[in-house]
Structure formats: structure tokens, C-alpha cells
Amino acid sequence: MKRLLGKRGEHHYDPQTVLYLTGNINYCYLHMANGAVILSCRTLKWFADQWPTFLRVHKKTLINQAYISSCKPAENSRDTNYIVMADQTQIEIARRRAPSVLSILAQRQLANQ
């Protein structure tokens, strides 16, 4: 894991080693590709501004698009859409964000073909 130590003991992580981030009030948990979970005193908004390639799929979740394994779309309007990450974690897509997130994922899939 690449971790750089900055001034005042701040850690800087390589975004390519982060699978996804989950927010908890003013803190974040960074879920790393090697399985480690790191607590950060930064907010999800701060990480979203710093790492624009990450996708906000829920109020509490920011994901690295490079580690998306698959997408489980809802069967009907009452079901929940999920994204499956490389570590097999299922991440819920917020109902209001679902149309934009699913269109981004569809465009990404078309670009990869």
C-alpha cells in the first residue's frame, strides 16, 4: 500500500489503492484493495473533490470505478440497485442517484467494449 506522510502527520493515499469509501458524519473509512480499512478525519465531500474519478453512489458511499465488478439493477421500482465491487462487497445505489449512476455505468461499459 502506498501511503505518503505529509505535514502534521497527515496521510496521503494513492487513489488507485482505494476500492471505496464510506462516510460516518465527519469521518471516512477507506476500504483498500489489500483488505485494510483505514479511518480518516476527512469527509466524503473532501475526497470527492480531491478524487474526481470516484463516483458518489449514495450519501454515505464513494466508489472507485476501476474496481467495479458488476452491477445488479433492480427488478422493479421498489427494489434496490447494487454495485458489486472487486472484493464482492455489494454497495447500494441510492434511489435518487440510480438513474445517473446507471447511465454512467452503461457509458463506461460501452467504452470498454
Automatic annotation (TrEMBL):
UniProt entry keywords in alphabetical sequence: DNA-binding
InterPro entries in the cross-refs: LytTR_DNA-bd_dom
Residue ranges occupied by any HTH LytTR-type domain in the UniProt entry: 8-106
Top-level division of the source organism's lineage: Bacteria
SMART domains named among the record's database cross-references: LytTR
An annotated Gene Ontology molecular function: DNA binding
Keyword tRNA processing (UniProt): no
Identification of the protein by name: LytTR family transcriptional regulator DNA-binding domain-containing protein
